[in-house]
Amino acid sequence: MNITAQMVKELRDKTGAGMMDAKKALVETDGDMEKAMDVLRQKGMASADKKMGRIAAEGLIASAIVDNAGAMVEVNCETDFVAKNEEFKELSNCLAKAVAESNPADVETFVASTCPKCGKTIEEVIKEKIASIGEKITFRRFVRYEGAVATYIHNGKIGVLLETDKKDEELMNDICLHIASNAPEFLSRKEIPQSVIDHETEIEMGKEDLQKKPENIRAKIVEGRVNKLMASKVLLEQPFVKNPDVTIEQLIEGKLTIKAFSRYVLGEGLEKRQDNFAEEVMSQVKG
Description:
Layout: H1 5-15, H2 19-28, H3 33-42, E1 58-66, E2 69-77, H4 80-83, H5 86-102, H6 107-112, H7 122-133, E3 138-146, E4 148-154, E5 158-164, H8 169-182, H9 194-205, H10 215-233, E6 239-240, E7 243-247, H11 248-252, E8 258-265, H12 277-286
Antiparallel strand pairs: 1-2, 2-3, 4-5, 5-8, 6-7
Helix pairs in contact: 1-2, 1-3, 2-3, 5-7, 9-10
């Protein structure tokens, strides 16, 4: 298989590995991106903390809390310039509020529903903005919780929505900040699929620094490493970002229970436009 420069760049972006190491891993795995990432991790050339495949797209993460319901949405556009546009920001916030109010079943249902503000369908509202702004706009995803809800949005790029069993505004805001900063993947250990543990165990077992150790010692070291890695992925076991001496579980003990959380990063898994903006402007000038 022909390994392109774009493939090498994508693997480097995902893993932080060097150019030649990334290319070798792709050659070794015949261009399979997932397998190449595993190879680099086994050789200690990539971090498990890299959020695999997250190439940023433009747009905004927005959220809204209406009465006892909270919603968080991702709305995508083509350029960062439009993402900073007040009209686009207003649209994103309006869509978040509409999700909180209407509780749609899925994206398709929501887009086909009627906007309570203007009486048009959400799809029509988005199309009007496309015509007005001049760029493709996509309503990509949403999450909605009911009850005691809090939210935090960081520069429109990272968003958190949190649901707890009771309201404690200051504590809930702290937890939202922590989730935004530390990127937990699971609430508790019991949520981690066995397949994730097995996959990480396989990677650790294949690492070069353990190959000369006896099987029983290697298994014990791997168990410890995987246990530590799993703890880093679990919200309740993470050291609190403002005070690393206590875990989130210790922080909330006797105060509230975390029922659910969601963390969005703008453009997760989306390909960014490859256009050269300067060339695009020049071509319009020449035209």
